[in-house]
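## Example pair
The file below holds two records. Each record gives the amino-acid sequence first, followed by its structure token line.
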Amino acid sequence: MDEYLIYFGVALPLIVVFFIVFRSNKKIEKISIDLDELVKLFNKEDIVNIEFIRNKIVISFKDISNFNVELLHGTYAKGITVVGDKIKFYVSDEIAKNEEVFNSIKKFIER
């Protein structure tokens, strides 16, 4: 019985160290978002308002039926929600990245 405890006492720390080393060596891949591709999906004349609310980009349309939501699904957009004439989505878990996309879409609309 003592032998098993010794083996367990040696094996457990080795396994823990292995997992710590393995996890720290994983490289975090950052997704580069093609803002031009995303902005091309929107028709300036059909957009009424754009807002950035709680890490989501919220775009209000005159008529949402003119916007193809399926094309948005084909991009980097996540958490896409359509509520009335508004569409809500985000592209990253990072607030800064979502704000960057929001600002790009806003600049495109204001041109």
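Second record, same layout:
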Amino acid sequence: MSSPWGKIQKPEIPVSFAEIMSEDVARNLQNKENELHRKFLDIGKLDEAGPPILYDTQIDENIPDEVLKAISNDSIESDAAIAQMLQMQFDKEYDDTLKRKEQKLNGTSKVSISLENYKRAPHNFDFESDSEPEEIEDIQDRKDWDRFDTLQKVIDSIPGCGYKVQQNGTLITKHDLVNNGRKNACKLLSFPPEFQTGDGETFDLKLSNKVYNSLKKHSKKEQVRRYRIDTKKEDRATAEFGMDEYTRLLIYKMVNGGLLDSVNGVISIGKEAVIIHVDSNTDFPDVQEPLPKECVLKVFKTTLAEFKRRDQYIKDDHRFKDKIGKKTSKKNINVWVEKEMANLLRLQRVGIKCPKVITVKKHILLMSFIGEKNRPAPKLKDAIMSDADYSIAYEEVKC
């Protein structure tokens, strides 16, 4: 459209506020891109002061200060080490989240829930370099497992002179009542496992010397009592099978001394003794006559459960009545073995057939074996004999 007054300018098209904001945002983003690109080019150039700085705290604001400090260290050149540090920081943040969750769940409740097993990172973190091992402390060495470990370190800190001056200027000696009481509490850990000491870790336990000595004395008494009960159980085996520890030792001495070659097994068990078949050493020198090959050991029971009135059979015997007195059953049994041996020798003198006595050791009587090929002769009640055989046997033993 023409006009005599001059050229008419076209009116500007109005721009919306949203378009203006979008242009400003695009312009700012482009400026930041240019700035970052320029800094990246500047960082790539070597500086006379040292190696280039690869990271800037203003650029990476989300990276923790500990990791940035470790990254800026010249000795760390491995990407794996940097990744481990970042992972440790992530684990620490995860553990902090668990800790807050644990506090929220527990609240003021008396029963608390622990999420310690679900944590990923240890309590302490070391971001030092691997090139300085003297600065890195082991986490396990740094940690006190319980209160007693801490107390033991305090007690051991007192030097050999017997006293120590603390930081506040006070003098503490090895005879201090508080430390001495705590030291006695630590000594409770050396008691036997069966001694119930309780949980002294949850509070500051202190024991005086008098209390500790009483507990120690009681612990030893209980331990002796337990061993005494076990000893009685072992002695009870003599009443059942006649083979307690002392009896086995005596038989071992017979074998080791050359009197016996082997111990075969039990033939019979009675209320007063156990009969064991053995093989003797026919070439044993310390005997007047050659020993029979097959012999028996008659082991008398020292702990009696069935035959308790043996003294009635000995007290009227003029040969042994002076040997019976206020003795233990183990000593009285030796007298009973002597009486048994004397009766067998008496039978031999009058010509009655009986086992031949070889020797006696405490409550063990070694005799000849009646039988052959490890098979004992049958007892009179089990023997199959005719009337004539019974008459002959009666005439042999008739007085």
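Notes on the second record: Residues 45-60, 125-137 have pLDDT under 50 and may be disordered. The beta strands are 163-165, 171-173, 260-269, 273-280, 294-300, 357-361, 364-368, 371-372, 375-376.
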